[in-house]
Design brief:
Layout lengths: L4 H9 L4 H8 L3 H8 L7 H11 L3 H4 L11
Helix pairs in contact: 2-3
Length: 72
């Protein structure tokens, strides 16, 4: 399974822990770790929550684009 490098990079760029991000998007640190390391697929609702939290597009999180802008 693919690692989600961008969610790790964004978290580290914002000096946040997995626990802190998990608390904001209402998941456990363990679940967040599984997603970040590619052990589990990220559900759409979690992808949307992460995109909203970091103010980036879901496509950016999934590395489908290098442009972080959202379509608002």
């Amino acid at each position: 399974m693919k690692k989600y490098r961008r969610i790790r990079d964004l978290r580290e760029d914002h000096d946040l822990t997995q626990t802190a991000v998990g608390a904001v998007i209402n998941i456990t640190q363990r679940s967040y770790s599984y997603y970040e390391n590619g052990q589990h697929l990220i559900p759409p609702e979690v992808l949307c929550a992460l995109a909203d939290f970091y103010d980036v597009s879901v496509d950016y999180l999934l590395e489908r684009t290098d442009r972080p802008e959202t379509n608002r």
